[in-house]
Amino acid sequence: MLVDIETVERAREGDSAAFTVLVNAYRRRVLGTVSRLIGRPDDVEDVAQEVFMRLYDSLGQLRHPQIFEPWLYRLTTNASLDYLRKRKRRPESRMSDLSEQQVMAADARVGAESDRDTREKKRVREFMNELLGQVSEQDRILLLLKEVEGLSLKELESVYDVNENALKVRLFRARQRVLKAFAALHEPDPRRKGAV
Amino acid sequence: MREDFDSREQSELNARLDEWFSAYRDACPQPEPSAGFMPRLWARIEGRQQLQAVVAWRRWAEAFLSLAAAASLFLVLLQVFPQSTPSYYHSTYLDQLSEEYGPDHMLLQDVALADAQTPLPRIPAAGVEKQ
User: Fold this and answer.
1) Longest dimension (CA), chain B
2) Are B30 and A32 in contact (CB under 8 A)?
3) Are the C-beta atoms of residues A178 and A143 closer than 8 Å to each other?
4) Min Cα separation B24/chain A (Å)
5) DSSP states along A37-69
6) Fewest beta carbons within 10 Å, which of A33, A113, A150, B89?
7) DSSP labels for A61-106?
């Protein structure tokens, strides 16, 4: 955890300073997750703020501070899904534009990333957006949480509030659907740098 | 789209997909929060709390108004349709007695008249001796 249990406890009891500590500790992670889940840079911060507003409203219901992180992931996932339902649009339409802008901003900051790396990353993002755009939002988000965010099965159980077996079945099916789409797509080699 | 994969193809595909997920993880930029992130968040939280307070107050006000309207309607209905009162509320005590006791009624009246015609004894004033 990025904060100690006592901070979560104090925030749960209504301590505004502790809540601010929580937000400061987790906002970058939430922004990153929301960014990958919704894929629209203009709205990432709004959705992240919605996540923290929901956290503020529901923190009193968190019975065990130890599961704060899966709880926050659940709020993040739900807020992102709500956003996607409202938009009724697939995120991949603007994903590359967004990522490009962000990569350009990152390039400007560090000033060291080469054009080749930029193109390579863009290629990877475009391919994965195309691939994940072929399965449902639920499958896409589940796989992103597992494979990209790196959540463990235990954490995913808390996020989805299902038992391990049900979760494994869901993951297996989601992965099978992605694999079928993966096999059907003309796949560029991810190890071949700069192969656009 | 191929429907079936043999186990070898499946494991190769799985491995390649894992590589892609890994590459995707590295290719996704990490967005930075804007400078106004926290102030804007607190403003939104406070705005929502105020809105919730207004909504709660409005609910109470609506409930109170509904109750007042129902009470007013009840009072108006009471005025429009007055409750019919029994006849004995309009008669006097003696009328009721006469109805209930019949001939005894005259006796009671005589007693009453006799009592009324009999002068009350005079009470002597203090300090005046009796002759």
Assistant:
1) 148
2) yes
3) yes
4) 6
5) HH--HHHHHHHHHHHHHHHHHHGGG---GGGHH
6) B89
7) G---GGGHHHHHHHHHHHHHHHHHHHHTS-THHHHHHHHHHHHHHH
CB contact under 8 A, A184 and B37: no
A146, amino acid identity: K
Å from B48 to nearest chain A CA? 9
Structure tokens, B73 = 């309607």
Q: Tell the burial category of A38 from Cβ atoms under 10 Å away from its Cβ (0-12, 13-18, 19+).
A: buried
Q: pLDDT per residue over A104-119, tens digit each? A: 665 566 555 578 888 8
CA dist., res. B79 & res. B84, Å (int):
12
Query: Looking at the predicted complex, does its ipTM rise above 0.85?
Result: no
Query: Across the interface, do B21 and A128 touch by the CB < 8 Å criterion?
Result: yes
pLDDT tens by residue, A121-158 = 889 988 998 999 899 988 999 999 999 988 889 889 98
One-letter amino acid at B52 equals Q
Q: Which position has the token pair 């400061």?
A: A24
| Contact residues on chain B for A46, CB-CB shorter than 8 A | none
Q: What is the dihedral of CA A92, A94, A95, A101, to 10 degrees?
A: 170
CA atoms within 13 A on the CB side of A62: 27
pTM for the complete prediction? Answer: 0.65
